[in-house]
Structure formats: C-alpha cells, structure tokens
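Review session, final week

We close the course with one last complete record, chosen because it touches almost every idea we covered. It is 16S rRNA (cytosine(967)-C(5))-methyltransferase, a protein from Alkaliphilus serpentinus with 445 residues. Go through it on your own first, then we will talk.
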Amino acid sequence: MTAREGALRVLYQIDVKEAYSNIALNREIKENPYTPVDRGFLTELVYGVLENQMKLDYIIGQFSSVKLKKIHPYALILIRLALYQLLFLDKIPPSAAINESVELSKKYCKKTSGFINGVLRNILRKKGEIHMPSRADDLPLYLSLKYSHPLWMVNTFLKFFDPSFTEKILEANNGKPELYVRVNTLKASVADVLKSLEGKGFTIHRSGYIDEALVIKGEKNLQQLEELKKGHIYIQDFASMLIAKILDPKEGDFVIDVCSAPGGKTTHIAQLMKNQGRILARDIHPHKLKLVQSNGKRLGVNIIETQEFNGIELDENLLGKADGVLVDAPCSGLGIIRRKPEIKYRKTNEDIKALTEMQAKILSNAAKYLKIGGTIVYSTCTIDPRENHKVVETFLNHNKNYQLIDISKEYHSFIPGNHQEAMLQLYPGMDGTDGFFISKIIRKS
Ligand SMILES: C[S@@+](CC[C@H](N)C(=O)[O-])C[C@H]1O[C@@H](n2cnc3c(N)ncnc32)[C@H](O)[C@@H]1O
C-alpha cells in the first residue's frame, strides 16, 4: 500500500462515509504496515487535502467539464490529492502526483482515468490562469476560499471578531496542533514518564503551567506506546486539561460529569481527587460510556460509576447533592478544527442554533445538582460566543443564587497567555492550545 493509496482510502471514508479524520487515519495506519516516512506522507496528504478542500474544489471547478457533484467520489478525491501536491508540495514532481492518481483510478474508479488525467494536465498547463476572488472585492468569499472555510462560518467569525483576528483564526485552523499528554500521576510520576519517553527518543517539554502536562515535539505516533497502554499517560490537549484543574475537585468529593465520554476529563478529575470519593459519569450514548469505563480501567481509576442519562432531563434524585459538576457540553467543535478539519464541512449555522438550546437546558439542569457552595464548570471546544458566553450569561440572568467565578484571577497561574476575563476563551493556536471555553459558577444559596 502506498501513502497515496492510503490517503485515498482515508479521505473516502471521511468524505463519503462521514468518518472522523483521526479515527479513519489511525485505523489505516494500524491495519497496514507503513514505513515512518510513508506514515508521515499519508498524514500530510490527508490533512493537507482536508484543510484545503474548498480551495481545491474551486480550482477543479474552473477546469472540469463535469460539475463537481457529478464526478465519481473516488475520482474527485484523486484529483484533489494530485492537485494538493501540485499546489502545496514543492518537492513532488508534478508527473509523479498526476501519474499515481491516474494509476489508482484504474483500481478504484476504472472509467475515470482519462478524465482525471485531462483535468490535472489542464490545470498544470494553465496554472497561471487560476482565478481566486480578491480581498478588496469580497472579503468573506476571499477568506472562505483562501482558508477553505464555508462562507457562513467566515461570516460568523466576522460578526464576532475583527477581520484580522478572524484571519488569524482561519490560518490557525489550517495549522498543526501541539501534541500534549497528561501524565496519570495515579500510576506514574512525571519524572519517570519524562525519563522513559526521552529514552525512546522523544523530545519532550513540561508545559510550564500544569505539572502533569507534557508536550511532545515532532511528528509522533503514540498509539503503540507502552506508557499509553499501561495507563501512564493520556493523550489530551492542554486546554482540555485546564477544565479539571479549574473545577478543582477535592479528595472525597461527589462529582457529576454530565457529558463524560470518552472520559478524558472524568479521569483527570479522578486523578486530582487521588482516586478518593465518587464520580458519576453520564452520557447520552451507552457505547461511548464503555470508553469511559475502559479508559478508567487503563488509568487505574475505580471511583467512576457510569450511567446512561440524557442531560436535557432533570434527575430529581440528585438535586443539591454534588460538590462539583462538570458540563463539558456537546458543541459545534469550532475550536478544534485543526484536529478535525472535516468539522468545517459538516457543521451548519442551524446546527449551532439547535446546540445552544440543548446546552442551555443541560447547564440549567446540571446546576441544580450542586450543594450550596458547590461549583460547576461549563466548558466547550468551540469559539462561538453563542454557545459559550451567551449560554452562561443567560443562565446567570435567570438564576440569581449562582455567581460567576473569575477564572483569570483565581487560576491565572496555570493559564497561558494574557487573559483578563472572568470566563476564559482560548482560541486555536494562539496560546499553544486548542480553542476551548471554560467558565466556573458557584451556587450561593
Ligand atoms: C465534548 S464531549 C465530552 C468529552 C468528555 N468530557 C471528555 O473529556 O472526554 C460531549 C459529550 O456529550 C455527549 N452528549 C451529547 N448530548 C448529550 C445529552 N443530551 N446528554 C448527555 N450527554 C450528551 C456526547 O455523547 C459526548 O460524549
């Protein structure tokens, strides 16, 4: 299997079967014996095409006699793959990029070889005639095609942020995310994990903000690592680690995590509680709760009880019972596009409107589970203020017995960057983290 064929198969899974990019790519790499070089090239091709898909399609549309929607799905992906190499990868000879797409078409979409060859050679010949919209004529369309984000998303960002910040976000969304792991201090010390990973040739730094957060430099596949299998580490972005730190649970607490799967934050909460107390980890999807259980087991946590429960329903049995509650709400994911570029092409503005209603309901129910003096964290991995500040502000306006805690003041020692607001909004790539929103509220009476 060549890297290009692997990329074709992964992109097909994402495009046609709606697979998640990280899962489809990991599966392809696990099931086929790629060399490290091929693995790197395969990853580059998959993410390169996904990140630039709208731009690639816009150009293909200018040179194809067939409408994009009518092109065989494999053929369209093969054209995108070759075009990405022609436009973005200097070191690849155009003939190699085109020839391998044509060759692969003979296996995956037989009758399209001539068409693929024709479109690609046409683009190669007339590269100078490619037309893109100008910034001055139409800023949203220019940004949308330059950074391959749907127009509605660019317009949403432009509504909330100024053009230069919007462009920074769009650019960051097509950038490479940092690779963080959390050391599971229930099973291993940070020093030991550092030593054993360095011994295996990894370049690792401490985050400088959170003891258990390590950042791994360079392209690395961690899936087969002993440290991961034994539960000494959990792959988790730094911003995601901030959530349990800000919830700040204590040993012996009763904590409810209402949207817990796959359990990254639940198991971090358990770690901070030193595996003492009780965590009720809920989710609407039973199959995902199995991941919470298996992650808990791997990490040596035994204080988590999982339970299928829809957060938009109120559980009368839990009213006033919890010391801490986490609502890591289902959201549009606009803060983690660098990790899952397919989010750009799947989410719609209507999705966001529906999500905000659900988020508000889940938060309002979950807050009722708090004891007086207990605290709740509401977090998301989006940068859309409608899903974030707006949800929390609306809640506070309707519930005067709850009060916002100023995160920037209380937890400044482990928040990178310069943040002044009570509710913390991190943007992708800006402070070396994903785009997360974190707010914390205390029940006063
Ligand atoms: C952002 S993810 C949670 C990630 C998790 N906290 C972690 O750190 O691993 C949101 C979760 O909410 C779940 N979910 C979606 N709708 C829900 C609902 N109505 N009630 C409870 N959980 C829901 C999803 O299945 C998903 O697992």
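Two points worth writing down before the exam:
The pocket of S-adenosylmethionine is lined by residues 258-265, 283-285, 288, 310-312, 328, 330 (CB under 6 Å).
The CA atoms of residues 209 and 415 lie 7 Å apart.
Good luck, everyone.
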